[in-house]
Amino acid sequence: MTLQNDHNPTDRRSWFQRVFLDLAQQMRWSFLPPLMVYFAAGVSGLTSVVGAFFLKDYLDLSAEFIAGLTFWAGLPWILKVPMGHVADLFWKWKALLILVGAGLITLSLVIMFGLVSRPDEMRAVFPLATWFIIALLLAPSGYAIQDVVADAMTVEAVPQRDDTGQTLSETQSRAMHTTMQALGRIAIISGFVSVAAVNIWIFTDAESLPRKARLALYGRVYLTAIAIPVISVSGMFLHTLIQRRKAQKLVNAQPDNETEVNWQILGGGLFFVVLSIALGTSNLVHAQEIVFVVSLLVILYLIKQLLKKLEPSAAKVLIGTATIIFVFRAVPLPGPGLTWFEIDDLGFDERFLSILSLITSLLALVGLVVLRPLMAKQSIAYIVVLLTLAAGVLSLPNIGLYYGVQEWTAAHTGGIVDARFIAILDTAIESPLGQIAMVPMLAWIARNAPPDLKATFFAVMASFTNMALSASSLGTKYLNKVYLVTRASVDPVTGEQISAANYTELGHLLIVVGVITVAVPLLVVFVVQSSRFRTSE
After folding, report:
1. If we measure between CA atoms, which residue out of 319, 236, 284, 205 comes closest to residue 37?
2. Which helix (H) or strand (E) holds 425?
3. Which are the contacts of 26, defined by CB distance < 8 A and separation ≥ 6?
4. Helix (H) / strand (E) containing 499
5. Comparing C-alpha atoms, which of 132, 123, 118 is closest to residue 65?
6. Cα 76 from Cα 494, distance rounded (Å)
7. Where are the alpha helices (DSSP H) in 27-92?
8. What are phi and psi of 161, to 5 degrees?
């Protein structure tokens, strides 16, 4: 199979051939195992709607505290640095890492099942909020471990030669790696689509159920989610079979490059783990901020060490690219208050939120497929500017919904353009954009990372960009301190009200978030592209 050049101006193939047929032609059986692990990560969304409603209705946790929990839940993804190097060192036993991750995910699901089905028994051991926090930390730990292995598997999955035995050119390799990374995002979103469709079916007429019946329904969802770790483990077994068959066909196969132990990476990772646990269990007011600053310094040091493995020009490109992606992902979000407002004031129930999730996922799939040639051709700076402007425009409908624009539109359209119509329209426009920015960067890493450090490179750069999500969580927490939002919640056993709803400051919060979302990334892109770290990747 010979790859076509998407960047060739004389390419006379039709748009359909470049977008869809070329994607099908680039598919390989070796792509399937990492895609199964990614798909399992997407299926994890099966419990997101249940978790959001259980958190809102039955746990007395403030928006500020929940934003802080998001920070701690993101720590396992930062720990991908030592995990990645461990995966390189023990690559022959990567199946064991997948099993460990599957075990952590299963334990998290079992805890959540206990919370919704046997709250009295769970409360006798620890407070329900404590159990929830434990489950919240276990699940991302499992997914992070599996993600480390899957990232490195994508490098192995892409062949170095075509079907005729010819070595792939730079252009062909870039197209193939872009396709592999795009398919990885597509696999994750396909998981979102699957669970959104299931949630729509599960939550039909759920709003009319009494409290006990609704909690029992939540419990069945968590039991069903046990299928998630089964999928990822099955993907690893398939990968093992494919690699064994590949090794049998190669008569003069070269032995794998042995990875040397990098004590700076392992030591820095161990230091970070100890520091995180110590601060996380302490009563320091600014524990999160200390962990963020120290871990960022550690990761920057590790990046500096890894950059020595690259050519100077490539190192500069990676610095500029990573900086742009970091800032784009670091902008703060409104926090859980927006979802609470949609549930309490706009009447969005579990089924409708599942419909929004399905629309988002389906259109994101279409967007990734259709925009794949753009991702292989345009620079990350161009894509981030496009996404930033789109994000600014797409922040307007939520602001409008808070200030009641749906009342005016409904009155002038015979009730057609109501709150749900606006939410669906906003979701339909927004969904294809959010999954794009990381694909070109992941493809660049897959092409340029040294073979013996593939998992380490993926882990370090992914940890750096995931630090941006921690920065986003901190920014979200600070904004929720300034603009206080509360919601109504009840005790899951007694049904007594714990807190009352107050959304008076949500409008200001949404406006501030919208301004930051547009202004900061555009400024950083301008600075980077005007410097010696300018990126054309």
Report:
1. 236
2. helix 419-430
3. 1, 3, 175, 176, 179
4. strand 497-499
5. 132
6. 35
7. 32-43, 48-58, 63-78, 80-89
8. -130, 155
CA distance 74 to 38: 18
- CB neighbours of 486 closer than 8 A, spacing ≥ 6? 62, 63, 499, 500, 501, 502
Q: Contact, 55 vs 39, CB < 8 A?
A: no
For the chain, report the end-to-end CA distance as a whole number of angstroms. 26
- Of residues 482 and 451, the one with the higher pLDDT is 482
Q: What is the pLDDT of residue 523?
A: 95
Structure tokens at 382: 């161009």
Q: Are 509 and 479 in contact (CB under 8 A)?
A: yes
362: amino acid identity, one letter: L
Report pLDDT digits (tens) over 460-473: 777 787 778 788 88
R_g of the chain computed on alpha carbons = 23
Query: 3-class SS at 497?
Result: strand
Phi-psi region of 165 (alpha: psi -120 to 50; beta: other; left: phi over 0): left
How distant, in Å, are the alpha carbons of 55, 105, 265, 277 from that of 119? 13, 20, 42, 27
pLDDT value at residue 192: 73
pTM, 2 dp: 0.63
Asked if 302 and 460 count as a contact pair (C-beta separation under 8 A), the reply is: yes
Q: Which of 416, 390, 434, 389 shows the shortest CA–CA distance to 188?
A: 434
